[in-house]
Amino acid sequence: MTELAERLSDILGPKGWIPAADARPWTRDWLDRYGAPPLGVARPAATAEVSAVLAAAHAAGVPVVPQGGNTGLCGGAVLGAPGGVILSLARMAARGEPDAASGSIEVEAGLVLQALHEALDGSGLMFPMHLGAEGSAQIGGLIGTNAGGSHAFRFGMMQDLVLGLEVVLADGTVWNGLRAVQKDNAGYQLRRLFCGSEGTLGVVTRAVLKLHPAPRQRATALLVLPDAAATVAFGTRLRAEAGDVLTGLEFFSEIGLELALRHIPALSYPLGTRGGCYLLVEVASASDCMPLEDILSATLEWGMGEGLVLDGTIAASQAQRAAFWRLREEQPEGQRLEGAQLKHDVAVPPGRIAEFLRAAGALCERLLPGVRVNPFGHLADGNVHYNLSPPEGAADFDGRAGEIGLAVARLATGMGGSFAAEHGLGQAKAGLADTLRSPEERRLMRALRRALDPGETLNPWALAPADGG
Ligand SMILES: Cc1cc2nc3c(=O)[nH]c(=O)nc-3n(C[C@H](O)[C@H](O)[C@H](O)COP(=O)(O)OP(=O)(O)OC[C@H]3O[C@@H](n4cnc5c(N)ncnc54)[C@H](O)[C@@H]3O)c2cc1C
After folding, report:
1. What are the pLDDT digits (tens) for 304-317?
2. Which atom of ligand 1 is nearest to the CA of 130?
3. CATH code for the domain defined by 104-213
4. If you take atom 44 of ligand 1, which residue's CA is the nearest one?
5. Which CATH number fits domain 217-332: 3.40.50.300, 3.30.1360.120, 3.30.70.2190, 1.25.60.10?
6. In a 3-state reduction of DSSP, which class is residue 102?
7. Distance separating alpha carbons of residues 73 and 433, to the nearest angstrom
8. Cα(142) to centroid of ligand 1, in Å?
């Protein structure tokens, strides 16, 4: 055992220190693309232990990578080279009571998102963050990536839902910023700085989260549309009609539906019509005064009259609502089960989604004829998961993956969008960030990183340690 391993084992005890030989379950990322054998896995049970671990690793100059639920899709929560420490927050999963009068709750970073939802059930309050990985993703990881998900267009990304934070810095210093108010302009917005920092600036240990009133009524519809242009046109009208009560506007494609139905037998498709595009629409309100179904059916009728909607149905039960959502949420799994895949998480201005899909489709077809494009995502904020499967019968992307990735990223940024919408950069997009970020942006980020972690022991492989140029 190395000196540092011995020291960490002393600090954390047998429950809190997993030696290298037993560390396998923490070593690889969700998509099994990244990871290296660690010195061991630290599983602290309190902020003071996180602080002691970071101070010891800092003194020894050994890298530490914070890990939440390890559901990140860019390889940010595992090591990029052997010998570092994985710092799992899973044992720090306590939560306080929801404060209904203030609309907030204090939680530890290791709390799993679904556990938070379940804890709030029946309280009249909700935490409006929903994503396919909510059964494993933790609050600290969601803050680390500044997660978005299906409700972000209405309630914001994680940075909009965090009121206060407690963070342990690289040398073990504890910053207590656990304020519980939205309005706090006493200097730089430190809490926001840590949202999306992917474990490179500090380790989040506690957070005060903003809660919203839980819906008293809800209506969910599944619609079939001819193509992306019709989907954008219908989505624009629906946003104007539904306003604040629109809480879900998710799209997926015919190829995505086909793959999901082929590979996941538990799924069923409730309509007789198929089209080029599908929309999952949800409206919800904490007030029970407004007839929500009326908004949906009136807009649906308008869409059919205009030829924008081919078919549609409104969920008649909670079970049917869950089945509609599952069709959308199983899109990544359907594609994974098909074989090799190439994932892109881009954002473009929502009004330009159809234009982006047309141009990106032509680009990809030119680079790899026959490549199968399976775009899905969050229509209202322009976040497109532009995922590809190899041409029918081919096992991979014929060495063109890097070229395709760069072309798609350049197209999105050129349209006023982003090449990293909600999954972050991690190790997967570190190189891309170095290529696409301006020198000014690289310098700013480098300066922040140096100021908070001069020794670069915190997750040094994520976000590209740019050369300062
Ligand atoms: C099926 C599926 C669907 C998904 N859907 C969405 C979606 O709709 N929207 C979306 O945004 N993401 C989505 N994701 C990606 C993923 O769930 C999110 O990135 C999530 O925020 C990761 O949380 P985690 O706890 O698993 O973090 P991890 O993967 O463990 O870590 C992610 C990053 O945060 C850092 N980190 C972890 N904990 C801390 C901490 N306590 N302090 C500081 N840094 C920390 C890590 O070092 C790493 O860089 C999906 C993933 C899957 C598998």
Report:
1. 999 999 999 999 99
2. 8
3. 3.30.465.10
4. 199
5. 3.30.70.2190
6. coil
7. 16
8. 5
